[in-house]
Amino acid sequence: MTPAARVQAAIELLDRIAAGQAAEQALTSWGRAARYAGSKDRAAVRDLVFDALRCWRSTAALGGGETGRARLLGLLRLREEDPDTIFTGQGHAPAPLGADEQAAGQAPEGAAALDLPDWLAARFRDSLGSAAEATALALRSRAEVFLRVNLLRATPDTALARLAEDGILAEPHDLSATALRVTGGARGIMRSSTYLDGLVELQDAASQAVVDLLPLEPGMRVLDYCAGGGGKALAMAAPMRGGPVVAHDAAPKRMVDLPARAARAGADVRITATPEGDFDLVLCDVPCSGSGAWRRAPEGKWRLTEARLADLCTIQSEILDQAAGFVVEGGVLAYATCSVLAEENAAQVSAFLDRRPGWTVEVQRQFLPETGGDGFFAAVLRRTAT
Fold first, then answer.
1. 278-297 pLDDT, tens digit each
2. Cα–Cα–Cα angle for 330, 335, 341, nearest 5°?
3. Rounded to whole angstroms, how far apart are CA atoms 249 and 326?
4. How far apart are the C-alpha atoms of 298 and 138, rounded to whole Å?
5. 359 has which bridge partners?
6. What is the four-CA torsion angle of 335, 370, 208, 377, rounded to 10 degrees?
7. pLDDT, mean of residues 212-221
8. What's the pTM?
9. Active-site positions?
10. DSSP-based three-state secondary structure for 375
11. Contact 146, 173 (CB under 8 A)
């Protein structure tokens, strides 16, 4: 595919997404139908689609319209690339720009310049204060790729050496002692021997830093109450010398790959549909807006509504109350989100403490995407003696 043909494919995909189709579903359907598209073509089209999704409002403003065509025009202008070299009408390229399209478009202003819905821009300001603009702008760019060194299989130095042998370049990152930032060869990670042998896992640096805050020791009974794919369960197993970690999720299908991941990592992760007994540490990485990870899943920014956010906050408080019942006296309840919104983070912790006496906050930290990783929040709560 030519660069222009890739743009035309992205235009059509953006129109499908704007009509309500999920981005991943649209891309998968297109990839199956476009047998002529090679792996590099599919990756390039995906990048165009996601770059436009991250900058949904600003590309529409710059392109002078809400269509996929206008947004790709806006994206080219945002990149300071000449649209006339793409919109040629030759072969599978988009049709040439008309005079009205040439004249349309303006610099985005206000919330559009931050690529946020108006109501969310206000929430960002209320939640983050002076950091709101920098956070919103950071979420407009692609997320970097991070690896977690599996200390059950390797040290950071040995992992770096093995990655280099596999043609993957990486370097340590300040957010966590186990975090490696990938600087080259990212698309080959999951085929590399370093990954397949369990020396590394794909995991955001801030997500790793959340686990670093937890007071984990060998012999503890640990429950990952909202395990999802199991990334944090696997990370928790390392300081416990392999585990065990009990993993639970309200939607068990999310954990379908966890047994294979645990076997590759050499970790003892035990899946349960119904947790039983008491635990020294319970982690609740709760369902949330995902606002700290919108670089990776940008359509979530535009699908989120005030009503959905309110529902999520209710779910979060219910999970905290449920999970607290599993913590032994003197034990720890850890609360985490990949959100930057105060009502999902510090406000949830404050509300929990108000309705549940006998708990104290040991650590509370907000990670923002300007530090390199995703936006995360974590609080470590200790159940005090009664």
1. 999 999 999 999 999 999 99
2. 150
3. 15
4. 12
5. 383
6. 0
7. 96
8. 0.94
9. 338
10. coil
11. yes
